[in-house]
Amino acid sequence: MTFAKDYKEIYRNQIKKQIRLNQEHLQSLTHLGSQINFEVDPPKFPDEDPARKVFFFDIDNTLYRKSTKVQLLMQRSLSNFFKYELGFDSEEAERLIESYYEEYGLSVKGLIKNRQIDDILQYNTFIDDSLPLQDYLKPDWKLRELLIKLKKKKLGRFDKLWLFTNSYKNHAIRCVRILGIADLFDGITYCHYEKPIEEEFICKPDPKFFEMARLQSGLSSFSNAWFIDDNESNVESALGMGMGHVIHLIEDYQYDSENIITKDHRNRQQFSILKDILEIPLIMGDNAFHHSAIAIKEMEEIEEEGETVNWSKQQINVQSS
Ligand SMILES: [Mg+2]
């Protein structure tokens, strides 16, 4: 018991120390794009504009690459929380983390359902706020250039670029500030870890969370929106909500140099698989097949839940950037 208490104390002190370092680092940032320009919790929804086009971006493993290894850092952080804060041994901690992720899509939902934590925000502070992100992420000027272009007529014509994340606002904003892209976004829809545990915890892929993002961004119809995420369930949900173009980012996608665009002609929806977020220009409207432009077109019928969806599949060979 004493040992467990000691470890918990050491663990908590380490967390506190790292959070202090992270805060100091964040305050010291002066590089381009290190400050946000939008209001984080506006008091009311903007008016819906039928002409408004919004691009929704997931953050973790999307705005920065999976290969940055931030995910491993998160897993370690989660594992330490289960061990030192909740008192599980290593094996049980790993088993629970895995089963919660599989069952609920987010570990915190499992902890809430099983009443293993009583303060969700404190959990989030221990996990996300204590990550030494500054050791793993740095400003991404190529991504910055892409995001700037997405608002311009020539490439994307988007009225708003919107952060749409299952993390809490602290982590989300810290990520985009370090990446040097914070000033390019128009708002954020994030998970409310600060809510009392009795209230429903809503996150992706829940359609209610998508509806929240629609209202907060002032989007009139999902068909006017683009969406990018690395998580399959979120991608499926975005398609189900009728997003105009849904991109599944799979960094280690098995096809070496090809990305795929499919179109559902009846619902005017598009779905793409990209290996790198910087490839977005290749799937943009008329520009989609310029560059290396080898498109193989084939029609196929996909049976989905008893409904026939008429998709056409196009593979594009991506050799230019
Ligand atoms: Mg993600």
TrEMBL record:
Listed Gene3D superfamilies: 1.10.150.450, HAD superfamily/HAD-like
GO terms classed as biological process: nucleotide catabolic process; pyrimidine nucleobase metabolic process
SUPFAM superfamilies linked: HAD-like (SSF56784)
One annotated GO molecular function: nucleotidase activity
Coiled-coil parts of chain: none
InterPro entries listed in its UniProt record: HAD-like_sf (IPR036412), HAD-SF_hydro_IA (IPR006439), HAD_sf (IPR023214), Pyr-5-nucltdase (IPR010237), SSM1_domain (IPR052791)
Entry-linked PANTHER family: PHOSPHATE METABOLISM PROTEIN 8-RELATED
Name of the protein in question: Phm8p
